[in-house]
Write a structure and sequence with these properties.
The structure is a single chain. This protein is of the alpha/beta class. It has 5 domains: about 200 residues, P-loop containing nucleotide triphosphate hydrolases (Rossmann fold, 3-Layer(aba) Sandwich), CATH 3.40.50.300; about 120 residues, ABC transporter ATPase  like domain (ABC transporter ATPase like fold, Up-down Bundle); about 120 residues, ABC transporter ATPase domain-like (Helicase, Ruva Protein, domain 3, Orthogonal Bundle), CATH 1.10.8; about 150 residues, Rossmann fold; about 120 residues, ABC transporter ATPase  like domain (ABC transporter ATPase like fold). The protein is about 35% helix and about 15% strand. It is built from 31 helices and 25 strands. The strands form 8 sheets. The protein has a 6-stranded mixed sheet with strand order 5-12-13-3-14-15, with helices on both faces. Strands 19-22-23-18-24-25 form a 6-stranded mixed sheet, with helices on both faces. The chain has a 3-stranded antiparallel sheet with strand order 2-1-4, covered by helices on one side. Helix 13 packs antiparallel against helix 14 and helix 25 packs antiparallel against helix 26. The radius of gyration is 30 Å and the shape is globular. The N terminus is likely disordered.
């Protein structure tokens, strides 16, 4: 018995491309598509057209699911479990590495070094070569008891009470001169209003030095203060304690996160942060700081710009640390290659711009020497200046040339021009999307009339009639982060675009300096919103609260009955509409809840109606339909904000977990626009938006200006920059080579500026 030999020519000609048959995830309409391997493939289309559903929810999920199936069952049980995507067939997949837009860690202990996985290597290097040795690698960590400063527990800072914010000298104690709520009301107020030394009716401005010292610091001799219990009527005696030592003991030397949010905010408002005096702000103990390599301790090295650190590591010749130094240099080189070589490893991630954070994620994920891998990127150029986007494009091409498959979800003109193959989904968004409208190269796309083709063929027009201005917000000596003590005036009543390469100081100026000096500004930053099955556009924007009130009033019951997270929820699925069955070592099985049929609500909640519809039926309305359905002014105002950002096609109850990145960005924008204010600061509002969606955004920004508001955007999209009334360009480069104002003026004047990188790309785009 023999085996049939397959013809070699047949094998060579066999199609090895990724084949997808019958994809139906989210809004995909049972589509078939072939994705060529060894190419840079871009998924295009308007926000909500189905790009992410195809790239991430179908290809990435199935790749991860099948790859995990190769592991033993006991290991699979400890890994994330993935449900098989809604697709009939998927062929020729390879292992996938996903670089998405989920935010990197941004707590007070997260740094660039931890984000790119270099910090552990640096600690290991010092544990081997540092002299004198502080101990093992954790002896150099400010997050571990072996290395942290005992005074600040590794945070590198201490909270200092600002006494000037604590007292109102124009008032007496009885009138509330102590501004901290816990000391000016309740039983604690007895300490200050009923002690035998201070007159509670005397204004603080009339106090003697002795009275001030007694109020603030207390008495050297114990003094008892009597107060009567409201419950029992009994008289208790407590020791008098000065305002300042009492505040320190009760609120600065304890974890305030356990307190009510309002009280936390009040405490924070009364303190300022300063460098820890024990460790000098390093977060490390003396033993770790004393350990050095070639005259540098670990803080010295971590504080250097990455581009300066590499040569220092080159000088390490100790064989115990040489291999580690080479490994670390590889990470540093990748950081330099993507344009963030100016960052230091000690830089807090919470201070990074969106573009900087995005590139760090890429550095972390691109150090592999594996080939024939499918890399899937979610808008790798989002938040990047065109100059920085060029570097990302080169890196993606290099990745492709190393025999990998590179799939990119993108809107950028630059990325589309680099693509070997383009797959556009549409025609529109939501239920009107989910279809393949084009497959092929850029030349073929330009001959079509798809929304993406229309956007590419649409010329970028410079604002020839900017709104004149006479008054502005004056900022003097701005020096946060890399800002070099600049003075700048930001016009009032117009649309201003703040531009510049990543790390040039844009975010430092508008996210830190401006809000500190003008706290009345409404700042819409890039912090992610919750994207769970329980979060919907209606809940996030606040319109659901008003709808529940309306239903409650109409039916004479509690508003809790109209929340699927409370009394109104199905008791079986707890308001999720589905049941997930863990299958021990196999993938979980998710089924529609049989009790509620996926409606999320219990029968009692569904029995209540408003204008003939149940709460579940209302949540099935699109935002456009809901706007016509409701007459309540507050509800219509909130719905209008979502219509203004082009989300009318979404349903009120659609989980935010099913939204695209562009849709999530617009939901967040809508949630802020209904607020009453006159100054809006928006950090990259165009992130995740197709050019057609950018048109809607521009119209919205213009509308805000027409209504008498000041609008300031931190932006890289040339369509928005060209249409601004005023431009402030930061640079020239990022990091220590940035922080200066390169240009300020109208878009037309910017075109004449030879030193501005923004001007260079704007000239290229309008040709």
């Amino acid at each position: 018995m023999g085996f049939e030999v397959t013809d070699m020519e047949q094998i060579e000609n066999r199609n090895d491309d990724i084949e997808i048959i019958g994809a139906s995830e989210n809004n995909l309409k049972h589509i078939n598509v072939t994705i060529p391997k060894g190419k840079l493939v871009t998924f295009a289309g308007v926000s909500g057209s189905g790009k992410s559903s195809l790239a991430f929810d179908t290809i990435a999920v199935e790749s991860a699911r099948e790859w995990q199936s190769s592991y033993p069952l006991f290991l699979r049980n400890k890994m994330p479990h993935y449900e098989r995507p809604k697709v009939d067939e998927l062929h020729n997949l390879t292992p996938a590495i996903v670089v998405d837009q989920h935010a990197i860690g941004s707590n007070s202990r997260s740094t660039v070094g931890t984000a790119v996985d270099v910090a552990p290597l640096m600690r290991l290097l010092f544990s081997r070569v540092g002299n004198p040795s502080a101990g093992g690698s954790m002896a150099y960590s400010f997050n571990h008891p072996a290395g942290m400063c005992p005074e600040c527990t590794g945070l590198g800072e201490e909270m200092v009470l600002d006494e000037n914010r604590l007292f109102d000298e124009s008032k007496s104690l009885r009138e509330g001169a102590v501004l901290f709520s816990q000391f000016s009301s309740g039983w604690q107020s007895y300490l200050y209003q009923n002690n035998p030394v201070l007159d509670p009716g005397k204004k603080l401005c009339d106090y003697t030095d002795e009275e001030w010292d007694f109020l603030k610091n207390g008495s050297k001799e114990p003094i008892k203060v009597e107060f009567r219990s409201n419950n029992t009527g009994s008289v208790d005696k407590v020791d008098y304690e000065g305002v300042i030592p009492r505040f320190h003991r009760l609120y600065l030397k304890r974890d305030i996160t356990k307190l009510k949010k309002g009280l936390q905010e009040e405490i924070i408002s009364l303190v300022r942060h300063g460098a820890c005096r024990a460790c000098g702000g390093t977060g490390l103990n003396p033993k770790a700081l004393a350990s050095k390599i070639n005259g540098y301790n670990i803080v010295d090295m971590m504080d250097m710009p990455v581009s300066d650190l590499a040569p220092v590591l080159e000088e390490i010749d100790d064989p115990r640390g040489r291999s580690l130094a080479v490994q670390i240099k590889g990470y540093l080189q990748r950081m330099t290659d993507v344009g963030v070589g100016y960052l230091s490893l000690s830089r807090k991630t919470e201070t990074l711009s969106g573009g900087e954070a995005q590139r760090l994620k890429m550095v972390r994920n691109l150090g592999s020497s594996l080939s024939n891998i499918t890399y899937i990127f979610d808008e790798p150029t989002a938040g990047l200046h065109p100059a920085d986007a060029e570097k990302i494009g080169k890196m993606l091409l290099d990745l492709r040339d190393k025999h990998n498959n590179v799939l990119v979800v993108e809107h950028s003109r630059q990325m589309l021009s680099l693509s070997d193959h383009i797959i556009e989904l549409g025609l529109k968004a939501g239920t009107a999307g989910g279809e393949i409208v084009y497959e092929g190269d850029l030349n073929g796309l330009m001959e079509r009339d798809t929304l993406t083709a229309q956007a590419l063929k649409m010329p970028i027009v410079v604002n020839e009639h900017p709104i004149p201005w006479s008054e502005g917000f004056e900022i003097h000596d701005a020096h946060k982060h890399n800002l070099k003590h600049i003075d700048v005036t930001i016009p009032k009543g117009i649309l201003t675009a703040v531009t510049g390469v990543a790390g040039s100081g844009k975010s430092s100026l508008m996210r830190y300096e401006f809000p500190d000096r003008f706290p009345e500004a409404i700042v819409i930053d890039q912090k992610p919103i919750g994207t769970s099955i329980r979060s919907t556009p209606a809940t996030y924007t606040g319109v659901m609260d008003e709808i529940r009130k309306l239903f409650a009033k109409e039916n004479g019951v509690s508003a809790k009955w109209f929340s699927f997270n409370s009394e109104g929820g199905c008791p079986i699925c707890k308001g999720t509409g589905q049941i997930s069955y863990e299958m021990a070592f196999a993938e979980p099985v998710v089924v529609v809840c049989e009790e509620c049929g996926g409606h999320r609500y219990n029968p009692t909640a569904l029995s209540y109606k408003y204008k003939g519809l149940s709460i579940e039926e209302v949540l099935k309305l699109t935002i456009e339909e809901a706007f016509d359905f409701f007459e309540n002014a507050k509800i219509k105002k909130l719905l209008q904000s979502m219509l203004d950002v082009g989300l009318g096609y979404l349903t009120l109850g659609q989980p935010t977990s099913t939204l695209s990145g562009g849709e999530v960005q617009r939901v967040k924008l809508a949630s802020e626009l209904h607020k009453t204010g006159s100054v809006y600061v928006m950090d990259e509002p165009s992130t995740g938006l197709h050019a057609k969606d950018v048109e809607l955004l521009l119209a919205l920004l213009r509308k805000l200006v027409e209504n008498g508001n000041t609008v300031i955007i931190v932006e890289h999209r040339m369509e928005l920059i060209a249409q601004a009334d005023w431009i402030i360009d930061m640079g020239l480069e990022g990091g220590t080579n940035g922080g200066e104002m390169v240009f300020c003026g109208t878009p037309r004047d910017l075109l004449k500026c030879d030193t501005s990188k923004t001007a260079k790309y704007l000239r290229d785009y309008i040709r």
